[in-house]
Model the fold of this input.
Amino acid sequence: MTSPLFEAQSTGGVTARGGFEYQDSYLLQQIPLYLSQGAFSHVVSELVGDIEVRYHRPAGGTYCVTYEAKGYQLSEKELWDEIDRFLELYGEAKDEYVQFVLVCTDYLSKLDALLSKLKRLRGPGASLNTDSAFRNSAEADILESIVKLGRSREIAQFVLDRVSFIKYNSSDVSGGFVGMLTNHLPTVADMKGREQVAFQAACKQLVDSSINGCVTRVALEAALVESAPSIAMAWMATPTTVYLTAGPVRGIEDLALNVADFNGDSRGALGAAAWRDLQHRLVSLGTFIKTSRMRQAIKVSAKQRMSLACLVGFVFSATRGFTLQMEHNDGQSHDTAKHDRATISFFTEGRIAAQQDGIDGVVSISFPTSSREDVLASTSGAPLEGAPKLFLESTMPVGDSSVLNTAVADAKDALVAFRGKHQLERIHLFVKAPSFFAMTLGHRLNGVGEVLLYDWVGGSYQQTAKIS
Done:
């Protein structure tokens, strides 16, 4: 059996590269779009498809969007032959080759109605609920339209789910490239004209090499910084957005994880394995960010439950070189790259001495209201009843980043001292505070050994994640 990698359709472009200016022009013009997509990893030409754009896959490896780019109007037979080929690729690697795009100068007029319906469904229609009656009727209409063109139900469903159609004119690549820069990378909108020219030339050189190997995101970002020194600092400060979603993740272009279970009412019953798997996925995502770009700032919503917020901060920690730009309620935000501190003592300390020797200690951090009684009730049995306990409490609000930094620094110093004094191997941590405090504490929580996190769920504290 011949692998798709070695089929004539895959290798033909390698030996006839001179005739492929159209697909190179299209790829060149799309680079600003790809750089705006957080999960974009790399692109290669003439592997299995004309162009393959790769995106981070949370379970490991990459997802692939496969393009066939033809610089002419396809005949009806040519179009459906390409779609048949797409379906074959999908059938052989469903977890890798997941989306397909056909690019050409124009399509036959008999396809206009179908393409218009697809465009409307995937454009404004994307706002419809998945169980919407209007969505269902639109999808049924599209399926019937494809069947009426003489195609099977299988092909019709495949087109609806996974195939896109793009018209592209390559007559003004330079203008199109600049327009894509402006539309998709607003951070670099002030790039000087000569810098735009230099960046486009650097990208073209990389595209020309895409036949021989991968054009990586990090290479494209390096070309941007080198070509445009006037905006280099602004670009390097641009954060990568990580989306923590409350439901299934749609699309592959963004860096996103479904964390609904870890914010839900059953999070205390998920078990260690589920929390460990989430941590592994976050670590994988962080590793991808570290290796795929020079920028290490992460933008994330801090509106999470305590354990999840602390875990996210821990994975994207300062010791790993990350900074966090955390969004919270009412437009409030905090940036861990800002290190100024308020000249205050944020916490008052309360202690209960150890009643027995052991490796476990209890730390409760609560403000602006105390959780001491709830923590005592939750630790009244073995093995924590006789463990040493530290209570950090405050009535002060966190008004700005300087107060947040002071609160986090004071809490960490107290944790380290408490652990050292009692020679603890494990700290049981209870946090009742604004979630951006929990995320920032996790971000700076190194040097304290193993930490078990607890969340208030259903009227009591329940153990959730372990970090160390």
In short: Residues 14 and 46 are 6 Å apart (CA to CA). Residues 14-19 have pLDDT under 50 and may be disordered. The chain is about 40% helix and 20% strand.
